[in-house]
Amino acid sequence: MHFPTFLASIVLVFSLTCCSAQSGGTVDVPTLKAELAKGKVQLVDVRTPQEWSTGHIAGATHIDWFSDDFKARVSKLNKMEPVRLYCASGGRSVEAREMLKQMGFKDVLDLDNGIQAWKRSGGGVVK
Prior knowledge:
127 residues; 5-stranded parallel β-sheet; 13% strand; globular; alpha/beta; Oxidized Rhodanese, domain 1
């Protein structure tokens, strides 16, 4: 008689667990700024060369998500050091984050809403 309630509870717990796991992979602008100030992160811009040339966050390494050698280039990063990724608005960096996690990187986050959020918050870019 209580089976439907039990089943609904299990489904709810599973749903909440999945959602929290997905949302846990981003970093907001203030946190990223603090991390960059400490100099303890590897910052990677995964946008195209054209996007990169319009301005990027100082200290970022450019590794184009669409390039044929993306995986080879990111494999040269230190897997034990934090990696922060960004793109224009957060789509490609999520995909890149998942790839890096599968490759064994321990601490990988992507910038929530990408460089657009960075610029909106007054973050500067260099060319």
